[in-house]
Amino acid sequence: LFPATLTYDTLRFEYEDFPETKEPVWILGRKYSVFTEKEEILLDVTSRLWFTYRKNFPAIGGTGPTSDTGWGCMLRCGQMIFAQALVCRHLGRDWRWIKGKRQMDNYFNVLNAFIDKKDSYYSIHQIAQMGVGEGKSIGQWYGPNTVAQVLKKLATFDTWSSLAVHIAMDNTVVMEEIRRLCQSNVPCAGATACPALESDVLYNGCPEDVGLRERLALWKPLVLLIPLRLGLTEINEAYIETLKHCFMMPQSLGVIGGKPNSAHYFIGYVGEELIYLDPHTTQPAVEPSDSGCLPDESFHCQHPPCRMSIAELDPSIAVGFFCNTEADFNDWCQQIKKLSLVRGALPMFELVERQPSHFSNPDVLNLTPDSSDADRLERFFDSEDEDFEILSL
Fold this sequence. Notes:
The chain is α+β, with helices and mostly antiparallel strands. The protein is globular. α3 (73-90) runs antiparallel to α4. The chain is built from twelve helices and 13 strands. One of its GO terms (molecular function) is protein-phosphatidylethanolamide deconjugating activity. It comes from Ptilorrhoa leucosticta.
């Protein structure tokens, strides 16, 4: 962890640049060459919203913490993966942040949804307080699954984005469940049947001048989060190729995970290294100015991103995907099916048309644990264990 007083400016020269390699660099579904597209890579990384520890924000719950240093890293990673979904939803994957350039209103609307105050949709305040319902006291560390469950609940209040959030449990993605969730926007027969026609929910986040057919979209944009356990104490090498392929898909939102009790937001890979944004830097909380503008530079990582060996990844992760349209989802399903044919790549999860009549716990570990791992195994197969946190042996 970095000392709490450092900001990204003081760290700028301590980060390694990208290695000079012929291997392609993949960032959230985009392929780059280090030799010819280094500036494009860094611009893409800088354009992601970067959420770090903050200090001196309003007390959570009125009397709680005013900083999340030391406990909020997974909450910040959850914010980052969800912010990427909102960027894709409202700005598009091709949108770029350029320092000093005036940004469109939708950009500030997205950013404001994550600002450290109680009335922002996805603020640290909302996540921490909603987590109490998931059995987490304020200031307690989250696992990938817990933060996914909390974000799903918070998204129901975000009528501007009107997202369908699905968390696939038991290593299984059920296509029928997702279609039912995303097709819940049914157009109405006439104006009298729809008194709420002017609401954001039916506009599905679109401006009013968009045609009625677009406004009453039959597919709510999908955020799909898949909590996974890819090994017992370390990642099983058989999953590495499949994990890499997830970053190659155009629907990729990246991965939240990290090392034990130290969370990162993984946005891509090069060779055998994962590329990630690190929340472990404490910055002062940002207040909107009197004019309503938000100083936003500290929400963009302006140094080369961190890298780490894939083999060091903690096996507890959550993988994210965004499907703006039904065609995007169908394409994603086809890509996942093709992945099962890749030689040497073990599927991380199962894709099925409908819910199996009975679930048995799949042997996702492909390991024969010894007796010293008994407690850890019992915890892993306990259906009450939602947060996949790592226990010290």
